[in-house]
Design a protein that fits this description.
The protein folds into two domains: 290 residues, P-loop containing nucleotide triphosphate hydrolases (Rossmann fold, 3-Layer(aba) Sandwich); 242 residues, Class I glutamine amidotransferase (GATase) domain (Rossmann fold, 3-Layer(aba) Sandwich). By secondary structure, the chain is α/β, with parallel strands linked by helices. The N and C termini lie far apart (80 Å). It binds glutamine.
């Protein structure tokens, strides 16, 4: 065994306690790892920190692969309620993920895939399936080494498949969550097998500042970090999140308690706009310090010019004109449920130098008090976002109807497309009883109906029409023009219902233009009303592929129309 690395030894001994399935072609040290954990509490911006660091590494010319490790037992995020967990983000390959993946994609400006997202449910499912096939014959399957081994295998497979210079692994939740134990243990083992200059541990903690005291307190952070140490993980870097800048004394306390040199304890206070974060972190040399631990700081040099440019272009000047946009949805009290839409609007802000104020309209309330619909006049544009189920749907149909009648810019996304069709069918085509079979299975005019391939499906996990598909744009339409006259665009879908092709003719006859469709099929995917100030809707989710400095054209032109005030 002499001359071999620890990992090679482990891989070559099949009957030892070192169970680590190493993927073919993997070599220890071929990839650097940054493992990001949280302590004290969730919601301190760990995802934003991870995304910003990805941006900084990419800015240095590194090939970066982010990975999110979620502790929950769902196999993916598809069945999660956005009200509890935030938006379900859809990748191009159809994987339904946590919203952090959306943030990684936006900051890296690249598409991610199934291999960038692991849940405990996926790990256990893989292990149980392997066990049934006899893969562990003769052995009892254990949390250590089998569960931890499987987690490491997923991580290393990403390294083999994408050949990144660095894999940035964000562990969901906080240190001390019972369900996170195996993920953390797997990361400890990863460090043991890869050696200390290949794995860097960063703990993002929170320094509280109780208003009654008016000063920063570090005890909660100390205890959180101690917890990490007790699991055998020595952090290399501590990021102290706080509301206001922390004093030197706090950094010193944290340093003393965590064996982390004080220059590697970095304070990161709240900022207004998230795209300012990468530059702020660069100024604190956070990326430099991480790469020092990994011994590649000299190999990959920063490109500050590009970073400053990027940050500036995303900014909106203080004197910029502003528009008021309302989102008419169901989960109005949880902004995270619509995070990609808010981001897509933000992408327009920089490009158009326009401030966008977003407001929320609860469509369930509109149903109870229909008179309140007149309040829509107070907005420069209305978005009806995606959604499922009955609650609030009549309110959404009423919103789509009102915007059409009153010439208020309207952007419908997925369900927003479907309600625009229902409203138009009912009041313009006079199809009384028009509805979606999702809402009213036996309605008189099923203008929105189940996709044919959905009829045989019974389970609810990963069974919708999901992921990236081509959309064909019809020449001569607004959609064609605003997408630079491209014949095809690729967008992401997540739905079960569609416009019933039997109604295309009557809707078209009354003036609804279908400007985007599935190639080679009579499946309509973009609608527009050309006489209207702006009335467009799509069956896909343009918000998932909108990126900083590259807003989706539908959002961009919707905001442009909203800016043209006093027209109605
Ligand atoms: N509930 C609708 C469908 O399944 C819309 C889905 C959505 O808005 N994502 O088709």
């Amino acid at each position: 065994m002499k001359g071999k690395t620890l990992l090679e030894n482990i891989a070559s001994i099949s009957s030892t306690e070192f169970y680590t399935p190493v993927p073919k072609g993997y070599k220890a040290g071929m990839t650097k790892y940054l493992v990001i954990t949280g302590s004290v509490m969730s919601g301190i911006g760990k995802g934003m920190l991870t995304s910003s660091l990805c941006k900084l590494f990419a800015n240095r010319g590194m090939n970066v692969e982010p990975m999110k490790l979620e502790a929950y037992l769902n196999v993916d995020a598809g069945t999660l309620n956005p009200f509890r967990h935030g938006e379900v983000f859809v990748l191009d390959d159809g994987t339904e993920t946590d919203m952090d993946l959306g943030s990684y994609e936006r900051f890296l400006d690249k598409n991610l895939g199934r291999e960038n997202f692991i849940t405990s449910g996926l790990i256990y499912k893989t292990i149980v399936e392997k066990e049934r096939k006899g893969a562990y014959l003769g052995r009892d399957v254990q949390f250590i080494p089998h569960v931890t081994g499987e987690i490491k295998r997923f991580v290393r497979e990403l390294a083999v498949k994408k050949k990144p210079d660095i894999v940035v692994i964000e562990i969901g939740g906080t240190v001390g969550d019972y369900e996170n134990m195996f993920a953390l243990e797997a990361m400890r083992e990863l460090m043991y097998e890869e050696s200390s200059h290949n794995v860097c541990f960063l703990n993002a903690t929170y320094i509280i500042e109780p208003p009654s005291l008016g000063e920063h307190k570090s005890k909660a952070a100390q205890l959180g970090i101690r917890r990490l140490l007790s699991l055998g993980i020595q952090p290399n870097i501590i990021v102290c999140r706080s509301h206001t800048p922390i004093p030197k004394a706090i950094k010193e306390k944290i340093s003393l308690n965590s064996n982390v040199p004080v220059e590697r304890v970095i304070g990161v206070e709240d900022i207004d706009k998230i795209y300012e974060l990468p530059l702020a972190l660069r100024k604190k040399e956070l990326d430099e310090k991480i790469l020092e631990v990994l011994r590649v700081e000299k190999k990959f040099r920063p490109n500050n010019k590009e970073l400053i440019e990027w940050t500036k272009k995303n900014r909106v000047s203080k004197k910029a004109p502003s528009v008021k946009i309302a989102l008419a949805g169901k989960y109005t009290n949880v902004k995270d449920a619509y995070i990609s839409i808010l981001k897509a609007l933000e992408h327009c802000e920089g490009v158009l130098n326009t401030r966008i104020e977003t407001c929320w309209i609860d469509t369930a309330k509109l149903e109870r008090e229909p008179r309140k619909i007149a309040s829509l006049k107070n907005y420069d544009g209305i978005i009806v976002p995606g959604g499922f189920g009955k609650r609030g749907i009549e309110g959404k149909i009423a919103v789509a109807d009102y915007c059409r009648k009153k010439n208020i810019p309207y952007l419908g996304l997925c369900l927003g497309f479907q309600v625009a069709v229902i409203a138009f069918a009912r009041s313009v085509c006079k199809l009384k009883g028009a509805n979606s079979t999702e809402i009213e299975p036996k309605c008189k005019h099923a203008v929105i109906d189940l996709l044919p391939e959905q009829r045989q499906i019974s389970g609810l996990g990963a069974t919708m029409r999901l992921g990236g598909h081509d959309v064909e744009l019809m020449p001569g339409t607004i959609a064609h023009r605003i997408h630079g006259k491209q014949s095809f665009i690729r967008r992401r879908f997540r739905h079960r219902y569609e416009l019933n092709p039997e109604y295309i003719e009557i809707l078209s006859k009354h003036g609804m233009v279908f400007s985007g469709k599935a190639p080679d099929k009579r499946v309509m995917q973009i609608l527009e009303l050309p006489q209207h100030k702006f009335y467009m809707a799509c069956q896909y989710h343009p918000e998932f592929t909108s990126r900083p400095l590259k807003p989706d054209p539908l959002f961009l032109h919707f905001i442009k129309a909203a800016r043209r005030k006093h027209v109605r």
